[in-house]
Amino acid sequence: MNQKTSIPKGTRDFGPVPMMRRNYLFDTIRSVFQLFGYLPIETPAMETLETLMGKYGEEGDKLVFKILNSGDFAGGIKMDLLEQLIQVPENSAIVSRTLGNQISEKALRYDLTVPFARFVVQHKDEITFPFKRYQIQPVWRADRPQKGRYREFYQCDVDVIGSDSLLNEAELFKIIDDVFNQLGLNILIKFNNRKILAGLAEATGLGDNLTDFTVTLDKLDKIGLEQVKQEWLLKGFPTESIEMLIPVIGSAGSTFEKIVSLKTLLQGSATGMKGIEEVETLLKIISAFNLHSKIELDLTLARGLNYYTGAIIEVKSLDVQIGSICGGGRYDDLTGIFGMPGVSGVGVSFGADRIYDVLDQVNGFPSLAQTGTQVLFLNFGPDESATCQPIADQMRLAGIRCEIYPDGCKIKKQLQYADQSKIPLVVMIGENERIAGQAVLKFMSSGEQVNVAFSDLTKEVMKTI
Amino acid sequence: MNQKTSIPKGTRDFGPVPMMRRNYLFDTIRSVFQLFGYLPIETPAMETLETLMGKYGEEGDKLVFKILNSGDFAGGIKMDLLEQLIQVPENSAIVSRTLGNQISEKALRYDLTVPFARFVVQHKDEITFPFKRYQIQPVWRADRPQKGRYREFYQCDVDVIGSDSLLNEAELFKIIDDVFNQLGLNILIKFNNRKILAGLAEATGLGDNLTDFTVTLDKLDKIGLEQVKQEWLLKGFPTESIEMLIPVIGSAGSTFEKIVSLKTLLQGSATGMKGIEEVETLLKIISAFNLHSKIELDLTLARGLNYYTGAIIEVKSLDVQIGSICGGGRYDDLTGIFGMPGVSGVGVSFGADRIYDVLDQVNGFPSLAQTGTQVLFLNFGPDESATCQPIADQMRLAGIRCEIYPDGCKIKKQLQYADQSKIPLVVMIGENERIAGQAVLKFMSSGEQVNVAFSDLTKEVMKTI
Question: Hey, what domains does chain B have and what are their CATH numbers?
Fold first, then answer.
């Protein structure tokens, strides 16, 4: 019977302390979303294969967790496939792809974007546009697990669709700023505009190579300017194009200086000039916001270029060296894949796991977010614990998390429980205290003890938490 | 491209209003759990097949959603099984059972109890006992969907393990009472004790037939006393046994009267007398609690008898005719299945979907739990909306959920948005208002409008929400 206990690789259990910290993080993010008028939605963990497949590219599709049909799924297998498998067993990997679709018709969601698009199309008649929604739910990917990468993790997405006003982009900057300010983290908000990237390709004669251009550009951070140059040369970009790009791309100038040099370079590109105009409008709106965070135009930022059509946003931690902790942008055709074209939207996704790691490394979780029970009543026996009940009730009315130790066992053991559970306050009401109507309040960190009348206990505890 | 959008049968999308209501429900339950010192945990959506299978009986096992192994899963299929399927395709249902285990090694959790037991065993060295935990997560079952029964639904479990004190049972009564009192629902808490049931079987000479005895007894509610009698006779129970049971079982007396007659009947059964003692102790502790809810000893209550060993608890709504909305009990061996025997615990599970339905039917959701954005600032153009930004910021600091309409489109359309989104308050700052520093505050329900100085807006709004 002594079964080994384990969980699937890449998944995690969350015990009380990580859970309280995670709840603090999610509650902070959620409360900011709500204050800006975003509304919650939730979609099922499972979607149909039809909804999910073909949306994440060939590599992405392989990472979708399929759910085996219930009951007699083997009855759905085509005979010729079985024969193929028996005759050429070394081709089982190829057979698996076809077989998977014969024995499975649903899968776990891979992200929140495709389910959101599906939701919008399916419920378009009930939705009031512009639709501001947030969604905080786990997603599943059959990725190779490694440090910081899990097979089950939460995404926190916030999007507004059905409006192409740049006020929406500006508001997202404010939301990002508010979230990280409330969390006490220092960040840099980097942004770019897809139209500027397209303009750069166009103005330098690389119009047809936009993807090649940006895929390399996106690596600048990691490989440096010289390597970027080499990659472009290898890709066959004309030297003149590269010479035009380098001063702008490599510029260490301010956002303002970058815009000035862009204006010269992109003069001939209508798309590029539109991108600059968008950036300038956005900056004008944001200038009234008094943001705590630094913001910076980063012309190398591309993030899934094929998806974004306007603003591109990415947040870096200034406290800890880690990948981006939030990102997103403007897209023009969220729901086209489900036959509802022309729905423009803009949104960002907060990387909960990475933000958790940053908070952890800078000791950024407030102590209240890591405290479960605040007051433990020791149990000196049935009469004494009965005396504690109405007092505990009073405390709970005041919002204090408290508990009465359930067993009348050795006091040492009960204090040990308080200590191990990191409960900061202990109330002791023995026989004498019960008769006198005075409890002993013990501060676990200092060991200090004070006598407090029953009627003053709640007030006294409130002072210290 | 016009793809039909749908979700797997038995699953649900939750739009903003149901989500806000659900959050209200979960937040209420969660906050009560926390006030009593229960701590949150979460386990992965997927568990290994080894953890889940064989824990829910043959029927339950069939309802577990298995996840197809990623990649070359077909390579794991045994050749003889393939040949069997080709030779006797009509046996595909039987083959499916074996095949499932060759191409799947993990599955979606079916309840929160087995994952909790697995969690406790796996983390026993980190856990401080008694361990008070709550867990609110979805579970998945391949049940036939029908009204009120879904393939994805939430469970809200609260348990304390590692203590056999009856204070724990009493506290659960208080928690149940607090939750439903806060939700404004009227309930009846029914309870029983497995030891009393065992005692009844023993004292009436049915000792070996405890399961048969209680399976029928459990139906009393539905089929009535006469039918229960008939079923017992059919099962071959001696007439004398039945004659002894009927007066006790069928008693419409008070809890006190039931205990009196039990004491006579169970005199000869040590187990039975222990059960009565437990009930009396429990009632004594609870009597100090001033519960709002009615409580009642129901000797026909059995609920998964093979699992419970002491108290059995079930909650019925007094507002709406519906199945039990919360239930649980004491168990003596939660973790034995994973090789850690002797861990006693007691807990209850709140049926979120049913409680939601009850609240819905009695119009029990407070209006604040159904309001998203509280204030909409109309957008009269870039300068006006820029004026709104710092005012909106002030409101958010005061906890007011507000938004600025993103587009400077027709005012009629913007008001329509407020109306359809059920936003109760609208702030209008046109050019004149901007210059005068006075906004127009419009109450959407009455249509009333008042002029309010910018600096007083937050205060004015706070008065009305």
Answer: 16-48+109-361 (3.30.930.10), 66-108 (no CATH), 371-464 (3.40.50.800)
